[in-house]
Design goal:
Blueprint: E1 3-7, H1 12-23, E2 27-32, E3 45-48, H2 54-60, E4 67-70, H3 78-81, H4 87-108, E5 112-118, H5 148-167, E6 170-176, E7 179-180, H6 193-203, E8 209-213, E9 219-221, E10 223-224, H7 225-236, E11 244-246, E12 251-253, H8 254-265, E13 270-274, H9 288-294, H10 302-320
Parallel strand pairs: 1-2, 1-4, 2-3, 4-5, 5-6, 6-11, 7-10, 8-13
Antiparallel strand pairs: 9-12
Length: 327
């Protein structure tokens, strides 16, 4: 039986990845500082521990694993990354995790590691036009991410690629673009736009309004979590190291995303744009390299994904209420 190690298995993407690996017959160990918050983990073994501690990493990597997935990070949506007060924790915590993970894997002589980077590494100067952002992989340099989160991700990309060159470990690096779906953060201040908007719409009465940060003309693309997991596995098992984008190339404005959710809800709700952190003006996944190297492309539309996500968040709001988080 093949074995997989998922670091960050208590998180949104990590929990979905564990479930997929189990469906393929893997024995899976998950590691995180917490269990998945919305469902029992499907991991065969789950280690609760802080990956900033080298001892936790050594305990996690106490045997051979065929595949190691490093998704653990201190992260969140715009309300967490762009407010400025979390910058030190974001950089320190995530960098420490990656340094520890790499060293533990190197000492165990593990041969293949996947690292989840982010679209936030792309230069702000290429994302000023919401209609024409430039996010091809080669555009990452000269580097100028718009957040400390992006700078740490870029540093860690280089860390993994360097260990590949110098220590003979096979690495795979993907730049995730706004992954969403059921069982993700929706009300804790770390949620991203699709979940935040779904929560606001689910909480609003028909005839009311929801608030959207900024003018709402800022653009993004959003990838449903099952598609993200599929792309991740295809990259991991390929002969291509990356870095490569994993995302949808279906770009939409935040106002139009809100209108899509409102339409799915069958409510009559108005949009009120207010000041707030928004990040770059435009971002879209450029998928030519992935399609060339992996021979695969995203199939689910954004609307398909929202149709699957909104009912789950509506159920959470109905059961637990809207805790009035600003996102």
């Amino acid at each position: 039986m093949k074995k997989a190690l998922v670091l960050g298995a208590g998180g949104f993407i990590g929990a979905h990845l564990v479930t997929r690996l189990k469906s393929e017959g893997f024995w899976v160990r998950g590691v995180d500082i917490k269990f998945p918050p919305y469902n029992e983990t499907n991991a065969d073994d789950f280690l609760i521990g802080d990956l900033r501690d080298p001892l936790t990493c050594s305990m996690a990597v106490d045997q051979n694993f065929d595949e190691v997935y490093q998704l653990a990070a201190d992260m969140g949506g715009a309300g967490f990354i762009f407010v400025g007060t979390n910058d030190y924790d974001i950089m320190h915590n995530s960098a420490q995790i990656n340094l520890n993970v790499i060293e533990a894997c190197r000492k165990r002589n593990l041969k293949r590691i996947f690292y989840s980077s982010s679209a936030c590494i792309y230069p702000e100067y290429n994302q000023l036009d919401p209609e024409n952002p430039e996010c091809s992989e080669e555009s990452a340099y000269p580097a100028a991410p718009d957040s400390e989160y992006g700078w740490e991700k870029l540093f860690s990309e280089r860390l993994y690629l360097t260990v590949a060159r110098n220590k003979g470990i096979d690495v795979r690096v993907a730049r995730y673009h706004n992954i969403f779906g059921p069982e993700g953060s929706w009300n804790n201040g770390r949620e991203k736009a699709p979940a935040a908007i779904c929560r606001k719409v689910a909480s609003a009465e028909s005839g009311g309004e929801i608030e959207i940060w900024g003018d709402g003309l800022q653009t993004r693309s959003f990838l449903y979590v099952d598609e993200c997991v599929e792309a991740t596995l295809r990259l991991m098992r390929s002969n291509f190291s990356g870095p490569v984008n994993i995302g949808s190339d279906e770009m939409i404005s935040i106002n139009d995303l809100a209108k899509m959710v409102i339409n799915i809800s069958n409510k009559d709700i108005k949009i009120k744009n207010i000041p707030g952190p928004t990040g770059v003006r435009g971002r879209n996944s450029e998928n030519s390299l992935f399609e060339e190297k992996l021979g695969w492309r995203v199939s689910d539309s954004l609307e398909d994904g929202i149709h699957k996500t909104y009912p789950w968040i509506l159920k959470q709001v109905q059961e637990y209420g809207d805790f009035d988080k600003d996102v």
